[in-house]
Amino acid sequence: TTHISVLAADGSAVSVTSTINHIFGSFVLSRRTGIILNNELEDFCGRANSISAGEQPPSSMAPTILQSKDRKKILVIGGSGGSMITTAIAQSVMNHLWLGKSLKGAISEKVVFVDAQNSVNFEPGFQQSLIEEMRTRGHIIKGREFFLNVVNAVEKEHGCISAFSDYRKKGMAAGY
Amino acid sequence: MGKERRRLVCVCCGLVVAVVAVLLIIVCVSRSKCPGERFSHAAVAADSLRCSNIGRDILLEGGSAVDAAISALLCTALVNPQSMGLGGGAIFTIMDSSGKVKVISSRETVPKNFRQDLLQHCPKTVKLTTGPQWIGVPGELRGYARAHALYGKLPWARLFEPIIKLARDGFPMPEYLAQFLQHKFIKPMVQNSSLCELFCHKNKTVLGVGDTLRYPKLADTLEIIAKQGAEAFYTGQVAQDLIRDVQEAGGQLSLEDLESFEVRVDEARTVLLGEYKMHIPPLPAGGAMISLILNIMHGFGLSPASLQGNQTALTLHRYIEAAKFANGQRMKIKDPHYSPQNVDNMMDSSFADEVRAMIRDHSTHPASFYNITPSTDRFG
User: Fold this and answer.
1) Which residue among A77, B29, B217, B340 is the one 20 to 30 A from B171 at the CA level?
2) What is the pLDDT, as a whole number, of residue B289?
3) CA atoms in the 13 A half-sphere facing the CB of B301
4) Mean pLDDT of the A47-54 span
C-alpha cells in the first residue's frame, strides 16, 4: 500500500491511499500489459463468512484530512501497512495535534501496534522502561518482526507548509 | 552597427540580470517567510523523493492537487511496485479550495465468477497469499479518471508523460524495493513467478541496488492509456490483453467485470474532534476506527504535559486500551452496499465517552471485554 498527501497553492488538498494489498499483490504479472494484479480478495479472510460479486473488501486504508474549525490549519495525512495503518495514523495525529510534537517528530516516533489478538507490539527502539511499565499493567507484549507502518503527511499552518514522508520507507517530500 | 550591437547585448545582459535578481528575491522572500524545511506554496508527500518531485512539478506547471496526486501515484507504481499499481484500487479524499470534501473510491471488487469456496482457502497464519483466485476487479484507473474529470486542470496525457519516460528509460533500483527483492522469503517467490521477467536478470538472479529498473511493456500500456483514456484499460485492447493473461494464469476475471466496474463518489464522513474536523472516507475504509481511538484519547485532555514524568506511561496505557476497544469494532468494517449496518456510533463522541469510562488507569481487561473477534492481521 502507498499513501500520498498533496496540498496545492489554492488550498485544495488530496489524501489518497492506493494498494495491490500484499507485497506484489497476487504475484501475477500480466505479460502483455506489464501490470501486476492485486490480491485484494484476501482482505475478506477472517472478516467475512461469505462474499458477493461487486462487494468491496474491508480495509484499514483511511486517507484523512483534518481542518481546524477556523480553517487556519489543515493536516492531510494517511498511511500504509495493512492493519497497522489504524494505530500509525492515530498515533501520528495524537502526537502532533495534542502532544506538541512536530509533524516529523510525530510520524518518526516509534509506534505501538495492538494486533488482532490484542497483544501489544512495540517497534524496535521503543523505550524499554515504558514496555516494562505496560507489562506490569497487564498487557501481553509480543515481539513482532515486521513493522510496515508508513505515514506521509502535509500540513499548513500560519501560511507555512510542513511536509513529511516516512523514513521507514525511505520517503521524502517535496514542495515549493 | 558595432555600437548598436554592443548596446543590444548590454540591454539583453541587463534584462537577464534583472530577471535573475527578481527570481532570487522571490525565492529568498518565500524562504524567509517559511524558514527551515517548510514551504510557502504547496507540497507533496509520497513514498519516494522521485515521486514527490514529479507531483511537485505538476503543481508548479499549474496542475491541481488531484493532477499532482495522479502523477505521483503513477510514479509510485514504478518505484514501489510491491505496494501499488494499475492492477489495484485507490481511495481519494479530496478537499476543494472552498473546503468541500468528497471521497472517490475505486477499491477493488469481487468479480462475478469468483470461486465459491474461496474463503475456505484463507491462510490460518499471517503470510503472503498469492494466486489468481485472489484478484479483485482493479479500479485504480477509473478512480483516477473520475478524480481527474472532477478536479483535473492539466490534460490527462500530460500526467503520464514523466512516468512513461521513466518506465522506458529506466532508473536506478530503489533501495527499499531492493530490500524486498533480496528478502529471504520474497526472493524465491519472485524468482519462481512471472514477476521475474521484471525484477530478475536473465540468469534469474533478482535485481539489486546498482541495477537499472525498466518497464518496457508497462510503458507501452501507459502510452495507450495516456492517449485513449482510462477506458482503454476497461474496454479496449489493454482490457483484452489483461483478461487473457489473468485467465491463462487460472483467474476468473472477465471483460464484463472490467467493463462494469463502478467508481463510488460520496461525501466524506466528518467527525468533530475538539477544535478539528476530521474528514474520512466511508466504510469499508478504516477511518471510523481511527476516529474512535482519537475521540477516546481527546477526552483524556491530552497536552504536552501528558508526556511529562509518569504521565507518559499513563498516556501510553490509555492509548493501548483505546486501540483494543477499536479492534473490538473491526468486524463492523464492511461494505455498506452489501452489509447495511449503522456504525455511526463509532464516530460519535458519546460512544467514545462510554468506552473511556471503561478504561482503568492501572490495569487492563481480558480480551473478551473488548468485544474482540479473533482474526488475523493484514499487512498490505
Assistant:
1) A77
2) 96
3) 2
4) 95
Question: Between the CA of residue A154 and those of A12, A160, B38, B210, what are the distances in Å?
Answer: 12, 11, 10, 31
Q: Which residue's entry shows cell 509533524?
A: A103
- Chain B residue with minimum CA distance to A62: B287
A64 vs B: CB within 8 A: yes
* H-run or E-run covering A13: strand A13-19
Residue B111 cell numbers, joined? 468479480
Q: Are B333 and B286 in contact (CB under 8 A)?
A: yes
Q: How many CB atoms lie within 10 A of CB A162?
A: 24
Residue B35: the pLDDT is 85
Distances (CA, A) of B269 to B285, B290, B344: 11, 12, 10
Which parts of chain B are beta strand (E)?
Answer: 43-45, 89-95, 101-105, 171-172, 212-213, 264-267, 269-273, 276-280
Q: How far is A144 from chain B (nearest CA, A)?
A: 11
| Chain A residues closer than 8 Å to B39 by CB | 160-163, 175-176
Chain A neighbors of B340, CB-CB under 8 A: none
pLDDT score at A168: 96
Residue from B167, B175, B161 nearest B214 by CA = B167
CA-based nearest distance A29→chain B, Å:
6
Site from A1, A22, A37, A147 to mutate, B interface, most B CB atoms within 10 angstroms:
A37
Task: For residue B93, give the 3-state DSSP assignment.
Answer: strand
CB-CB under 8 Å, B73 with A2: yes
pLDDT of residue B12: 59
**Residue A1 annotated among the catalytic residues of the structure:** yes
Q: Which three cell numbers stand for residue B323?
A: 486501540
